[in-house]
What we know:
Layout: E1 13-14, E2 27-34, E3 47-54, E4 67-74, E5 87-94, E6 107-114, E7 127-134, E8 147-154, H1 195-204
Parallel strand pairs: 1-2, 2-3, 3-4, 4-5, 5-6, 6-7, 7-8
InterPro entries: 5peptide_repeat, PA_immunity-related
Amino acid sequence: MKIDFPKIPADLTTKNFHDIFHEEDPELEYCEIQHSNFENEVVHRARLTQMTIKNCRFNNTDFENIDLTDVLFEKCDLSNANLSKSSIHRVRFVDCKLLGVNFTESSLGNVQFEDSVLNLSMFGNSKLDKVIINNCLLKNTDFYDCKLKSIELKNCHLDGANFEETSLKGIDLSTSTFDDLNVSLSNLRGCKVSSNQAIQFASLLGLIIKD
């Protein structure tokens, strides 16, 4: 599946989060931020556009209603950050720690998560369109009542992930692994799985498989 990658200029100005995020209308654009610690902060309705963010820490920071457009996060730690009710478009998360991040009630489009940890993260009641999740840990991740369109899951660990009230039609799980998955039978219609996964689902549904 092809998605649109972030459109980021080659020449970026170096900035720091603390220089601007205490302004009335917090906004950063056309810049690069590296090795910045912005933990346990509260910044609502921030806007980040056409920028790269590398080796930064945002643990427990409240970014509710953030607008992210054309942004690259690389080797960042956003554990337990609040990105609920947010707009996230043409954004890449590469080698990031997103443990327990709150993405609920958000809109994600043309987004890529790569080589990242999303265990216990929450996407409930969100819309995901053209999202690639590649080689990521999604243990106990919550996708409750999500609208999934053009989603690609590749080589992910999904053990304990919750897809209740979420249709998996057209979603290919065949390259991912799990021991347990929370999903209703009706929402599995049209989901693509491997033969071994089909046996797992049959077992989860209480079927007894005989040789």
